[in-house]
Amino acid sequence: MNYDAQKQAQRYIDIWNEKDAAARRAAIDELCTENAAYTDPLVVAEGRDALDATIAAVQQQFPDFVFRLAGNVDAHHDLARFTWELGPADAEAVVIGFDVAVFAEDGRIETVHGFLDKIPS
Fold it and tell me: InterPro entries recorded for this chain (predicted)?
């Protein structure tokens, strides 16, 4: 594999923070394969359109929150896992989770499996 997992994970987090719809979609198209899929306990998004719609919905639900990587990315072969946080920019995270990304041979994301470790009650 010829990709930098830390860089790709940060680019992925940046997409979740991108509010400009056209810029977000362009970033998704660049970073993710055509049939990219995202699955967590609350949603299954198959394909770039569904991923884009999922991110837009999360931004609508948490308009003043930002995603951030929490720590280093752990990667081997075509897999990377990373912890992320979601909350106000200057405050403690309200949501914490970790994702496992599967990369295609060209370094683009094929699949992300998301897990939620802390969610608001």
Answer: NTF2-like_dom_sf, SnoaL-like
d(CA 55, CA 98): 16
Q: CATH number for the domain including 19?
A: 3.10.450.50
First to last CA, the chain: 40
Helix (H) / strand (E) containing 58: helix 48-61
* Beta strands 43-46; 65-69: pairing state: unpaired
| Token pair in block for residue 31 | 């970073």
pLDDT tens, position by position, for the chain (121 residues)?
667 999 999 999 999 999 999 999 999 999 999 999 999 999 999 999 999 999 999 999 999 999 999 999 999 999 999 999 999 999 999 999 999 999 999 999 999 999 999 998 7
Beta partners for 80? 75, 101
Report the distance separating Cα 56 and Cα 19, nearest Å. Answer: 8
Structural domain span for residue 17:
5-118
The Cα angle at residue 7 between residues 3 and 8, in degrees rounded to 5: 65
